[in-house]
Amino acid sequence: MRCHEVDYEIIGNDMQVVEVELDPGETVIAEAGAMNYMEDGITFETRMGDGSEASAGLMGKLFGAGKRLLVGESLFTTHFTNRGSGKRRVAFAAPYPGRILALDLARLGERLICQKDAFLAAALGTRLGIEFNRKLGTGLFGGEGFILEKLEGDGMAFIHAGGTVVEKRLQGETLRVDTGCLVAFTPGIDYDIQRAGGLKSMLFGGEGLFLATLSGHGTVWLQSLPFSRLADRVLQNAPGLAKTGAGEGSILGGLGDLLDGD
User: Fold this and answer.
1) Looking at domain 7-227, which of 3.40.50.720, 3.60.160.10, 1.10.260.40, 2.60.120.280 is its CATH number?
2) Which of the four, 68, 77, 128, 219, has the lowest number of CB atoms within 10 Å?
3) Cα-to-chain-centroid distance, residue 44
């Protein structure tokens, strides 16, 4: 199934909105609750799965939708269709401060692997699946576990990243990053994890016990503000809310709370 061809415009700086323009009969799929506004003539319907398996039977649709549960997403997606006679627009908002990336899957080998909560919206025909990581160490310590989200198709897909987005093109090099800062990468990239230096660095360095290593030929997108890091800062500084006691990735992060009498 070829994806619908949609036009778009990204509006804003820190709290961005992507406005998708639909021709009559065109459809865009999105995460539940992502819609910000839509023009008259656009209708929406909540469906099981992403709609790419339109010819599949009930069991096929259940299997396709069930994959989303494994990455922590909803069993359903919302389909927005232009039922009018002219062009109409529907907008989707970023869930927290950051950037919306508009990616043409046709130019990325028709496949993209991303963290489980990065997907925002995509043209109808895009398949939302899962990517199993076969390496035990990566699954246990890689931050995203064994399962990442996989987007397949030849249309536009929109994903969200926290803070500033950095795009890295690897030509056989190896890049080491904080596991939470990884947003997405193309299929030519090999994803693994390594220890974060020696024992002293692992215990007191505050960079976590492990770092993600990305190598090969392809493109990697990184974020400067993972949601988990933002949530930790809010909990640590908001009056009346319990502190997480986790620190910045260090297993001794709660030591300061003990000294403070918490």
Assistant:
1) 3.60.160.10
2) 219
3) 23
